[in-house]
Amino acid sequence: MAGPLLETKLHVPGPRRGLVRRPRLSDRLTQADEQTLILVSAPAGFGKTTVLTEWLAEATAHGRSVAWLSLDQRDNDPTLFWTYLVAALDKASNGLGAKALATLRSPQPGIDAFLTTLINELQAVTDRFILVLDDYHVMENQDVQEGLAFLVENLPAQLQLVIASRADPALPLPRLRSRGRLLEIRAADLRFTPEEAAAYFNGVMGLSLTAQEIAALEGRAEGWIAALQLAALSMQGREDVAGFIAGFAGDDRYIFDYLAEEVLQRQNDDVRNFLLQTSILNRLNGPLCDAVTGQNTGKAMLESIDRGNLFVVPLDDRRWWYRYHHLFADVLRARLMDEQPVRISELHKRASLWHERNGNIPEAIHHSMAGKDFERTADLIELAIPAMRKDRQEATLSRWLQALPGELIQARPGLGVAYAGALLASGELTGVDARLKEAEQWVSTTAEGGDDGNLTGSIAIYRAAQALAVGDTAGAMTHATTALGLVGKDDHLERGAASGLLAIGHWTNGELGVAYGLWSDSYSNLERAGHHSDMLGCSIALADIRITQGRLGDAMAIYERGLKIAGRHPAQMLRGTADMHVGMGMLLLERGELEAARQHLLTSQKLGEDAGLPQNPYRSRVAMAQVLQAEGEVGGALEQLAEAERLYVGDFFPEVHPVAAMRARMWISHGRTSDALRWARERGISAEDELSYLKEFEHITLARALLAQHKAGPSEDSVGQATALLDRLLRAAEEGGRTGTVVELLVLMALAHQKEADDGGALAALQRAVALAEPEGYVSWFVDEGEAMANLLEALKKQGSASDYVNRLLESSRTKTRSTRDRSTPAPQRLVEPLSERELQVLRLLSSELDGPDIARELLVSLNTLRTHTKNIYAKLGANNRRSAVRRAEELGLLSRSRDER
After folding, report:
1. What Pfam families is this protein classified in (predicted)?
2. Per-residue pLDDT tens for 59-97?
3. Sign of the C-alpha dihedral, residues 216, 219, 221, 223?
């Protein structure tokens, strides 16, 4: 990130001095165990934060874990908001949210993928805890609001969310209210009662007011705590208390301004100037205040103001960081503008310089922008761009750049190009073209020699990405080719990016040989640039192409090379390491090595999604779905595909294996042919379509459905339609050198001829398929076709042309057929690594209604020990939450076994 996270935003504020205890509110909050959402909504100055901190102190004392996040306007960047939220969760439970955060920081993050991963992590937590979002009213970003609404709708029971806000958030409050999941604390609840007002005025402030005077103040303020606090400060040392009370009316914001002004006037000049000058700061500490005021009394002054209850709030236990009460800060800033307007820019400049020296570039940018020093702001943004890109904070970068004068961006084309890149990375196309045109205009009017080609090359790269985003493959290829001709030979990162974009274009067009060569060039350049994780991303593309070309051995070698690269960097788990294991698992599955495939997928899962690239959550679930299907667990397989579809991230890669088509294939294999044919109709796929590489997988799926329809009962010569479609697909795949696809098509052609009682044609197609498949060790294309393929293999064997390979395929087919027939009996424990006896005990309790603390007490272990057992169980079962672990255990017969052993 361009600057460290502010720890003070994650600190639960300590009890304030002079606190009036309010057990009626604390008890109400404590008794809200059944409510997953607590909303504390009231205008400023009603003591929302104070009430929550009192309650949380009690909750913490009783063992509840608490996560706290104080929000401000700058958190309207979705990436920054969710990063802070995960950081708050990590404070409550070490490591919680790490996988989700890795998903968020991926080169092309999807908020849906992030939220799904986060919810799964929350679901895995074994005890309940509290997350507080304070000052949520500042959140105006629609993406943040929609994301939080999704989180609230799917909130696991382990998490109780508390939102403190001046206005009701954009959440489904009526639905939550009707379900009994919402507790609301509003202004009417927060107002001081007469008893609480008396405790404050006489007990805390020592004013010795009569009951009638307190009632008058409380009634006129209508319980508004901030106004009562200011009134108390105004009355201290005043002789005519009765006169003050008679003229007091605290129900108006202007009265608050008046009272705050009066409190300000009662301070000596040093304190008053300090308050005014430091009011520009969102957070204060001694050295920062010294830098702004030019004095050296900051720390002592803050401590003195804190002791005097002058609306300053400590933000940490050491009382090092503070902030002013929001309303008080507003009054101070208004007074500063009235009295010292010419000093404001200088004060912001001093604050900006201090933050820059202390490594907080975002805060430095905020102050330079507030001081309207736009040249300095532009300098700082240019300094921050690499880090902002790395941490995926494009929304913040866009907001900064949007705030700069347009002529300044036009004069700094690097900023314009960065602006375009930030928009593209955020999935926003509006404004991209304008920014790139401005940069192109600057380049065209620059004197000869003013541009060395790097800027022009960067523009061309973003033009290529822009074209891919709108489906203009030809345009993307033109721009990527232009970029390769512009960027310097030693600019390996840019050359790698351009080669990769050009490779995607050829890949999308089905020109796999050319695409493979360009991806290889990209890989080499990224290796020279030292971008090792990006090299692993290239490896995925290279292996995918080789698999389609029918070169499984080469694909396996690519993944193995990737793991060697990762092994050379053990100190920093390279993003992409997990993807190498997923790829190897899918290849082993194709070769019929089911248990070895599952082991690689479990290894990928144990590494965590922080060791994976953006597509890893999607690809790993697709692979696990195929493993579960091979084991006959169609329900679990379809669940994995549904989650994969939700988590899909394209990275501009062509979507040649759509999840919807994979689901249709699973339907076909389990007798749901009508569902698969309905999918084809809705997708607009027919047997007479013009063929293309991008739709090849879908057309093959349709051919499978037509063959299955014939099996269910002939309908309009569906097998004839399938045969004609397969014949066209086969010619196209052979012409494109897609040998892996050719093997699948020949297998299906053999089955089609068998249905037509053309035994000669069936065996001829099968023999060709076997000849192509044997060198690479294909198994699943044959075995997954069931008894019909087993009969064909038997016939091939009787013909006298069977090899050891055919015998192995035949034996595998027989084994699978027996397994399918025996599936009605409880399955044995088919795990790469069996569960220990203790883990079986934990598993049995996970299937009960007990929550985490109850399970820990039952087993006489700590919650941390229980979490360790639970994590191991999930990894061994290939599950990512409690429900899926129990379902998987039931499928394997583990729960019945553990009950029998009791």
Report:
1. GerE, TPR_MalT, WHD_MalT
2. 888 888 999 999 998 899 888 999 999 999 998 888 899
3. positive
